[in-house]
Structures are given as C-alpha cells and as structure tokens.
Amino acid sequence: MKRWAPYWLALPGWMWLGIFLVVPIVAMASVSLQTGNLLDGFVQTFSVSNYTDAIGKYSTQLVRSLVYGGVATVIMLLLGYPVAYWIAFKAGSRKSMYLFLLLLPFFVSFVLRTISWGFLLADDGILFGTLKGWGLLPENFHVLATTVAVIGGLVYNFLPFMILPIYVALERVDPRVIEAAYDLYASRFDAFRRVVLPLSLPGVFAGVLMTFVPATADPVNAAVLGGTGNTMIGNIIQTEYLVNSNYPTASALSFTLMAVLLVGIFIYARALGTENVLEAAAR
After folding, report:
1. CA 10 to CA 17: how far, in whole Å?
2. 3-class secondary-structure state, position 106
3. Distance between CA 103 and CA 74 in Å, rounded?
4. Burial class, 250, CB count within 10 angstroms (exposed 0-12 / middle 13-18 / buried 19+)
5. Of 104, 92, 80, the residue nearest 212 (C-alpha)
6. pLDDT, tens digit, for every residue of 199-234?
7. Nearest to 237 by CA among 57, 103, 78, 102
8. What is the spatial distance between Cα 21 and Cα 107, in angstroms, rounded to a whole number?
9. Which helix (H) or strand (E) holds 34?
10. What is the Cα–Cα distance from 88 to 173, expressed in whole angstroms?
C-alpha cells in the first residue's frame, strides 16, 4: 500500500490536468479541422485548409506578435537581471520588503493596470498633457497607439515574472563560491561571468519562458495601448472566437501559435544548453 501512496497523492493533480488541459486541447484540435458556421453547425471534415488559410490571412499578426514578445522579453531580461541581482546580494534584511513591492501591482487586476497605462500615456494625459502644457513636447507628440506603447505595456505587466525566477536562482548561489573566485584573483566581472551567471541560468531560462509565451499571446496590451497597426495574434483569436464565431479558424490559429512557441522554446533550450541548466539547478 505504501508503494502506491505517491501515485494516490498525485492522482488529483493528474486528474485536474487531464480534465482542464488535455480535454480542452483535444476538443480544440477537433474543432480546428471542422467546417461550417454557427447557424448550420460545424461538421468534422478534417479540413487542413483551415490552417493554411488562417496562416496565410494572419501571418502579419503572427510575426508581429513574435517580434513584440521577443523584444519585450529581451528588455525584461536587461531590466530584470540587475534588479534580481541587487535584491539577492545587496538588499540585506530588506529582501522581503522589496519582493513585496515587486508583487504589489498584482493586487490590482491585469486589465485595470493596463488601462491605467492608457490614461498615463494619453496625448492629453497626466504625463504628456502636462509636458505639452509646459512646452517641453510638441503638440503632435504621442506614444499611445504605437509599437512603443504596446511593448512598454508588455514589459510593465510581465517584468516580475522575469525577476522572480532569476532572484530565486541567484539566492541559491553560495557566497563562498564567489569569494573563492576572488581568492583566485578573478575580477568582479570575471567572477560574475564565470560563476554567478552560469549558476543563474536556470532562473534566466525560466524567466524567459514565463515572459515570452504570455507576452506573445497577450491580447490586452495591444487592444488597450495599441492601434489598428499593432494588432497581435491574440486579438485575432479573440475576435474570431467571440465576435465572428469562427471557431475552426480561431482553433487553428491557437494551435499554430502553440506550435510556433514550442518550436521556439525547443530551439532556445538547445541553444542555451538544457543539460547545463539542469546541472546548475541541481547544485
């Protein structure tokens, strides 16, 4: 009986994943191959053309989403790593306070935070309206409904998901290892490059995954902060599902996005070296 105890304990989790992850994915895969409409109903015809038609029609939005997600992820890494490093090694007894401040925005709804950014970046808003009134900015200056606004919103909303995994990885670095590097006449830069950075790669790997995937598929920031030229694939999927009731196309786009992200993650893992990452995480 003891031998089966771990399996019984894991059973609720596996059932949850099966019901709320596997079943919806299988159902969506089936819908993506159907044809028809909402009035006459949808029939399973195994129509692969749903994928080719959807990709051909919305390839621009798909590429734009990957670019926005990639740029936002790089910016988050450049901003997040120093913050995580500072909290892990310099914050001292105030680490908990800084982590709380980092998580504080999550006490407010994701949508409300994005709308607040919309008010802040508005042409006549608190920031730019005031600067224009002082004559520091031209009247035709605007940020809202631009690529900069959308990427800025993605960075703001998902930055904590980059910082936290990196912080956890850095927190596990034994200070004695860094001191040993200094004892071997390594400079601060060499100690960081040869000791700290390799040991923090598990956090970097997790942080990139936790930010790139949701940022690429996010429909909120583009809808609130972007314009007609900033539509992302998440907006298209949302419109096809909820407005046009074109479920096969929406499902095909969802699977296409999922496949592209999985391929990208696999390439990223191979390039980073998952074996080295796992070895560093196990230390």
Report:
1. 11
2. helix
3. 21
4. buried
5. 80
6. 898 899 999 999 999 999 999 999 999 988 899 999
7. 57
8. 26
9. strand 34-37
10. 9
Give 60-80 pLDDT, tens digit per residue. Answer: 999 999 999 999 999 999 999
- List the structure tokens of 134: 């002082």
Q: Which residue reads 């995954």 in tokens? A: 209
Place of tokens 């900015």: 137
Residues 6+ apart with CB under 8 A from 46: 33
**Tokens 């609720």 appear where?**
12
In the chain, what are the domains?
49-281 (1.10.3720.10)
DSSP state of 42: E
How far lies 238's CA from each of 58, 70, 234, 246, in Å?
A: 13, 21, 6, 10
What number of residues does the chain have? 283
pLDDT digits (tens, 9 = 90+) for 102-148: 999 889 999 999 999 988 888 888 888 888 888 888 888 888 889 99
Alpha helices for the chain (secondary structure H): 5-17, 23-31, 49-89, 95-103, 110-121, 126-133, 147-171, 175-183, 188-191, 197-217, 220-225, 233-242, 247-272, 274-282
Give the residues across from 37 on adjacent strands.
41
pLDDT of residue 133: 85
